[in-house]
Design brief:
The chain is α+β, with helices and mostly antiparallel strands and about 130 residues long. It has one domain. Helix content is about 20%, strand content about 30%. The chain is built from 2 helices and 5 strands, in the order βββββαα. The chain has a 3-stranded antiparallel β-sheet, with helices on one face. A two-stranded antiparallel ribbon has the order 3-4. It is globular. It comes from Eulacestoma nigropectus.
Length: about 130
């Protein structure tokens, strides 16, 4: 559900997208799944070409295509029984920013701090 368009590599970095999916369990309880999908560079991919090695001006060609930069989708997902899409978007955006900018903050500590926040009652202030 976090990548409804399918998982596929891209030749260019796409902008992050945010959406909410509502899942209903067997007891008819709703679970709000906030998804932030972004694309991250994967530069260590090498594709093997099945051709014989050949000699080029005294150098042997290995038959490998040099690594190409492609972007793979990754998703951050927050699942809750509460319907606070803007708060969850801000939380996922914070985690994304810390991850992408390689800030000097432990992701585990950040997520633990976010999980320990008190959520306001419905209709109350944020």
């Amino acid at each position: 559900f976090c990548q409804p368009g399918g998982w596929q590599l891209s030749k260019e970095r796409k902008q992050p997208t945010f959406f909410v999916v509502v899942l209903t369990d067997i007891d008819s309880e709703r679970h709000y799944c906030s998804c932030l999908t972004f694309y991250e560079a994967e530069i260590n991919l090498q594709f093997s070409v099945f051709k014989g090695t050949k000699e080029i001006e005294g150098e042997e060609e290995s038959g490998l295509i040099p690594p190409a930069e492609v972007f793979a989708p990754k998703s951050l997902v927050l699942v809750s029984r509460l319907d606070y899409p803007e708060i969850f978007r801000a939380c996922l955006g914070l985690i994304y920013t810390v991850y992408v900018d390689s800030l000097n903050v432990s992701l585990e500590t950040l997520i633990a701090n976010l999980c320990s926040c008190l959520v306001p009652a419905s209709g109350g202030s944020q």
